[in-house]
Amino acid sequence: MEPSSGPSSRTWRYGDFPELFWDAQPDAIIDVRNPVTFARLLTRGRAEVIGKLMSPDDLREGLETVDLPKHVELFWREVLRRVLSGAPGASSSGEGEAS
């Protein structure tokens, strides 16, 4: 996956989400494979934003490679498990059941 791609066909930039990436170059294309970006999305992002920027494959790969607080990792592993199993209330867009 190249940095500009995600579940939607739109090219997202850090400036599209200033509440998450206030310290990033606004015109730069979001790279969810960047460990800092990935961790910030999962620890501070809303489910609908995560669903726009990450596919289940991105989530799975990131959970294997990025160090996260244990509670964050466990939560998102459960969301991913439910998404992949088609559990009720889970969305294939990666939105999960975050509140």
- Total DSSP E strands: 0
How much strand content do the residues show? Answer: under 5%
Global morphology: globular
Question: What proportion of the residues is helical, as a percent range?
Answer: 40-55%
Distance between the termini: 28 Å
Given helix and strand content, the structural type is: mainly alpha
Please, what is the average pLDDT?
Answer: 85
Helix count, per DSSP? 4
The largest sheet, given as strand count, sense and whether it forms a barrel, is: none
Which segments are poorly predicted (pLDDT under 50) over 5 or more consecutive residues? 92-99
Summarize the structure in words:
There is one protein chain. The chain is mainly α and 99 residues long. α3 runs antiparallel to α4. The longest helix is centred in the C-terminal third of the chain and has 16 residues. The protein is globular, with a radius of gyration of 13 Å. The termini are far apart. The relative contact order is 0.17. The C terminus is likely disordered.
